[in-house]
Amino acid sequence: MWFWIWCILVLGAGAGGFFLARDLWRRIKVMLRAGAGLSDALEAMSEKVAAGEAAGPATNPRPVDVFADPLDLADLVAERRRLRRSRTAARRRGHAERYERWRTIDL
């Protein structure tokens, strides 16, 4: 009787090993296909990066202000705050105009 129990256990383990190996093989094939696509994407990205580097930076980087005069930095901060407040005020004026226009057409 134990002979048959061990035969069933061995055959079950062999069948489980077969299905596991088949699943792993399928996953490896999918991963290799994805890797081939990834290498193509990396080549395209490196070409885009090279083209972007050849074009130069889109903006000028801000210089470091560590050793600048504190009064000059305070003036710079005040100027930036003034510009930011003027942009905010212009945006709010535009919102107010839009809201008024919407009220006139009953939206």
Walk me through this protein's architecture.
The chain is an all-alpha fold and 107 residues long. The chain has two domains: 1-56; 65-107. The chain has two helices and no strands. The protein has helices at residues 2-55, 70-104. The longest helix is centred in the first third of the chain and has 54 residues, at 2-55. It is elongated and about 95 Å long.
Query: Care to count the β-strands?
Result: 0
Distance from N terminus to C terminus (CA atoms, Å) equals 85 Å
Q: Number of helical segments?
A: 2
Low-confidence stretches: none
Radius of gyration: 34 Å
What portion of residues is helical? over 70%
Average pLDDT number:
89
Shape: elongated
Number of domains: 2
Based on secondary structure, the structural category is: mainly alpha
Classify the beta-strand content into a percent band.
under 5%
Main sheet record: none
Give the H and E element order: HH
What are the salient characteristics of this protein?
single chain, 107 residues, mainly alpha, 2 domains
Question: How would you concisely characterize the structure shown here?
Answer:
The protein has 2 domains: 1-56; 65-107. The chain is 83% helix and 0% strand. The chain has helices spanning 2-55, 70-104.
